[in-house]
Amino acid sequence: MRRVGDYASRVREIPYLDGSLRLVVQPGRTRVHRRGERLFVPAGDARPAIERFYRRAARVEIGARLDRAVTVAGVSYRDLSIRAQRTRWASCSSTGHMSFNWRLLLAPESVLDYVIWHEVCHLEILNHSPRFWALLERRWPRYREDRDWLRQHGATLVLRAPA
Fold first, then answer.
1. Do residues 20 and 14 touch, judged by C-beta distance below 8 A?
2. Contact by Cβ (8 Å): 44, 6
């Protein structure tokens, strides 16, 4: 991707779950800080700092939702990592390690919840058998709609400058 000028001066808002955050450039700032619906960002190419913000926010958002889901399901997981996988939105290992892509915070909330429930169901069934899909449908009845949204729009969930 070609970089021209400073990112935050060209991009005014970025998605965050069902809403958006307005970027406010503050020269001299090195870290991103959120205050309500405003995101205070460094001058220049703020993308690296914004990605670090999303990674921190994803640990909080996903961690809380994952904890609620496993409580409802009556299962447990071992640990949680937030990553920037290129080909996966999330994964669940046979040892209960859960990994989620921070870019899920760029998607609608229901899509994030679908991915969380998908992985929670993998704590019980580690494959994509008909039994797995039946369990997911009981736990997240709208999974098809959210899965289809992610298939259709997933490639757009990136921090990018406008054309």
1. yes
2. yes
Q: Please name which of 117, 120, 84 lies closest in space to residue 102, comparing C-alpha atoms.
A: 84
Q: Which parts of the chain sit beneath pLDDT 50?
A: 1-5, 7, 161-163
Residue 150 and residue 13: Cα distance in Å, rounded?
A: 21
Reduce the DSSP state of residue 51 to 3 states and report it: helix
| pLDDT tens digits along 119-139 | 999 999 999 999 999 999 999
The 8 Å CB, 24+ separation contacts for 48-56 are 50/14, 50/159, 51/84, 51/102, 51/159, 54/102, 54/103, 54/105, 54/106, 55/82, 55/84, 55/102
- Is 162 inside any structural domain? no
| CB 100, CB 115: distance < 8 Å | yes
**8 Å CB contact between 69 and 80:** no
Domain that holds residue 109: 7-156
Query: Considering its fold, how many domains does the chain have in total?
Result: 1
